[in-house]
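testing teh design pipeline on a random one, pls ignore if ur not involved
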């Protein structure tokens, strides 16, 4: 019992220590990733879509940026979760809005609750997805008019932009790796290690 308590205490101290470390390099790349990811979406909206009054920049992308640029090792920040969570939640939000469009006290909780369960069921849990579903039922103006096009743009198109920027900035240094634990990254590391070993033999 004492050993367990001591071990728990040591682990807790280590976790608290790690959480309080200030890694300026990590913060720098997180800043750049978020800046360019959101910046690209905002640039497209302000310069290409102003005439049609289309909505390309939605609030839930800000929350996604916190995860995919600032917490890149989190299971909730992985590409499957980013894209799947947003797209499925958008589908749920639009569907609920079409069924109960004028009863916000019912459509809002239904959209969020169903999106959470669907993300859990498909293993694509991404917290900002709940906001994407809520935006579909609670917004006024252009978004309700988009109907299922809302799923394609701004949701899917915006997710792809955020993901491409994340793949670049989150792998730009050896200390950052995104996606985490992916087959592709493991394969690339093995290939790199094998090539390095072959060079050393020569």
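output:
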């Amino acid at each position: 019992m004492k050993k367990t308590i001591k071990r728990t205490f040591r682990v807790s101290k280590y976790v608290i220590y790690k959480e309080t470390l200030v890694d300026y390099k990590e913060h720098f790349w997180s800043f750049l990733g978020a800046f360019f990811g959101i910046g690209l979406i905002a640039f497209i909206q302000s310069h290409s879509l102003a005439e049609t009054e289309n909505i390309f920049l939605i609030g839930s992308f800000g929350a996604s940026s916190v995860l995919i640029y600032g917490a890149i090792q989190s299971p909730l920040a992985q590409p499957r979760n980013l894209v799947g969570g947003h797209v499925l939640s958008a589908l749920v939000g639009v569907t609920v809005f079409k069924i109960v469009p004028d009863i916000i006290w019912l459509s809002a909780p239904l959209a969020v609750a169903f999106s959470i369960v669907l993300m859990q069921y498909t293993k694509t849990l991404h917290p900002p997805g709940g906001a994407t579903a809520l935006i579909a039922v609670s917004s006024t103006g252009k978004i309700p008019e988009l109907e299922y096009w809302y799923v394609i743009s701004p949701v899917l198109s915006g997710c792809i932009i955020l993901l491409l920027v994340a793949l670049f900035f989150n792998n730009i240094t050896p200390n950052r790796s995104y996606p985490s634990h992916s087959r592709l990254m493991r394969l690339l590391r093995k290939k790199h290690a094998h090539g390095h070993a072959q060079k050393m033999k020569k």
